[in-house]
């Protein structure tokens, strides 16, 4: 394993522990600030995610947004492939997708203009550390080349890191929303 991969693995391990502690502290489901941000973009196609393990849940904000325009969730297409986003509704039927995340039973793909991005860690410069598959980096790069996408990282404040190990392919976020603050870049 190269040095950067080892450094990223250690950073992920520490961030997972911080996220788990925040999740267990009852900060679950505090999507109020995310809802406030999205209220300024009513009707703009957006994609969130179905939370897994100890991820902070964007579902309340996604439910609110779905009353005004299309909302989707990511569907993994395969290793080293960008994500596609299938239309989601709060009461729509779901099936299990790769890595245990729920996806809509029927695929109805569209390109979001706003992307709510899960993450393991973030810094105050808008950088994120993901799970290591590069799915969101590839996806953001493609969406930005096709005309733009507002990338909003959603995380517990405890997931903040002083600095992150970065690679040239890592895509920065435009905004980070936690249970307590909104950071714009």
Give your account of this protein's structure.
There is one protein chain. Helix content is 26%, strand content 21%. The protein is an alpha/beta fold. It has one domain (3-184): Rossmann fold, CATH 3.40.50. The strands form 3 sheets. It has an 8-stranded mixed β-sheet, with helices on both faces. A two-stranded antiparallel sheet has the order 4-5. It contains 4 helices and 12 strands. The model has no long low-confidence stretch (mean pLDDT 92). Helix 2 runs parallel beside helix 3.
CATH homology-level superfamily: NagB/RpiA/CoA transferase-like
Q: Write the H/E string, N to C.
A: HHEHEEEEEEEEHEEE
Helix content: 25-40%
Contiguous uncertain segments of 5+ residues: none
Strand content: 15-25%
Mean pLDDT: 92
- Can you tell me the CATH class? Alpha Beta
Approximate shape? globular
The structure class reads alpha/beta
CATH architecture: 3-Layer(aba) Sandwich
Might you state the CATH topology name? Answer: Rossmann fold
Please give the alpha-carbon distance between the first and last residues. 33 Å
Give the helix tally: 4
**How is the biggest beta sheet arranged?**
8 strands, mixed
What is the radius of gyration computed over CA atoms, rounded to a whole number of angstroms?
Answer: 15 Å
User: Largest beta sheet: what is the strand line-up?
Assistant: 6-3-2-1-7-10-11-12
Number of structurally distinct domains? 1
């Amino acid at each position: 394993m190269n040095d950067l991969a080892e450094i990223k693995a250690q950073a992920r391990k520490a961030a997972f522990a911080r996220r788990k502690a925040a999740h267990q502290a009852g900060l679950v489901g505090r999507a109020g600030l995310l809802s406030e941000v999205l209220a300024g973009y009513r009707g703009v196609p957006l994609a969130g995610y179905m939370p897994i393990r100890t991820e902070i849940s964007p579902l309340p904000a996604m439910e609110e947004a779905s009353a005004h325009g299309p909302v989707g969730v990511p569907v993994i297409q395969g290793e080293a492939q960008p994500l596609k986003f299938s239309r989601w509704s709060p009461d729509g039927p779901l099936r299990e997708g790769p890595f245990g995340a729920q996806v809509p039973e029927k695929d109805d793909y569209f390109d979001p203009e706003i992307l709510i991005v899960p993450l393991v860690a973030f810094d105050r410069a808008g950088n994120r550390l993901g799970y290591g598959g590069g799915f969101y980096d590839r996806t953001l790069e493609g969406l930005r080349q096709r005309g733009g996408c507002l990338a909003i990282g959603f995380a517990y404040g405890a997931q903040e890191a002083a600095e992150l190990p970065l690679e040239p392919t890592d895509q920065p976020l435009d905004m980070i929303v936690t249970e307590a603050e909104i950071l714009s870049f």
